[in-house]
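Sync notes, pocket subgroup
Present: LS, DG
LS reminded everyone that the earlier model was apo-only. Rerun requested with beta-D-galactofuranose included. Inputs:
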Amino acid sequence: MKKVVAVLLALMMVAGMVYAEDLITVGYAQVGAESDWRMANTKSFQDTFTPENGYQLIFDDAQQKQENQIRAIRNFIQREVDYIVVAPVVETGWETVLQEAYDAGIPVILSDRMMDVSDELYVAWVGGNFVKEGETAGHWLEDYLEKQGRADEDINIVTLQGTIGASAQVGRTEGFGNILAQHDNWHMLAMQTGEFTQAKGQEVMESFLHSYPDIDVVVCENDNMAFGAIDAIKAAGRTCGPDGDIIIFSFDAVRAAFDAMIAGDLNAAFECNPLHGPRVAEIIQKLENGESVDKIQYVDETYFDTTMDLEAIKATRAY
Ligand code: GZL
């Protein structure tokens, strides 16, 4: 009996070794775990890159530090992974380490945010169109103010920016700025980073409320900073949302943003789809088959506000 068990164990080990060698290894350098959006983005990769789907995922959480991501990429190179996926915390400072991956013959795919590097150093990029998100929010505010009869009123605005230098921050600030520039009666009183986190968002909003007693609109470059801003506004004895005296909207449109809109605290949320896992897997499969892939691949995005049936929409959403 003991011999049978030993043989069975040996066969399982060999199978395991063969099985492991058949898997496509993917090194994934994730930004961190700073927001609900980021958690949904990570889950999308973890649900996609499984052994059952033919992958071994090596995941690294950089805690929003570029030096940790660079260290992770170098570790992936040493481990000779088949593909490297990076969600770069900021756009600059990647040329050297991506050249090392290129020299090692390991394809790099960018997810979520962009890098400012030579084109040949990455195979493809999948993410949101951040400038378009910002412009869509600007057009939504135009329409909202028009409907309120405030199109010609002086409108005082503050912005909670994301991590400075991150593509989402750069694009959303630029996009909303493109619409702001078309309205002489819109005044941007201040913009400051809340690092995409709820705690920092609340802290910065507290300082904005202290400095500017007449804020009409708060632009939050992600949902989590909006949640912090809402807490700060309420703590200051002010009100926000469709029935409040401060208009507040955010980017991402995660589940908790729907809850905030349904509760009447948030006016609108501009979607930034985090489900990049399947899109990146599609790119890898094409590369495995020797097919070409598009360099830039935007995910589909829309927006939601309190004029919509948010409970019904929320029930259909994956994140
Ligand atoms: C957007 C992504 C941003 C989200 C934030 O693609 O880079 O980072 O908007 C996240 O919630 O922290």
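DG: The first helix runs from residue 2 to 22.
LS: DSSP finds eleven helices and twelve strands in the chain.
Action: DG to write up.
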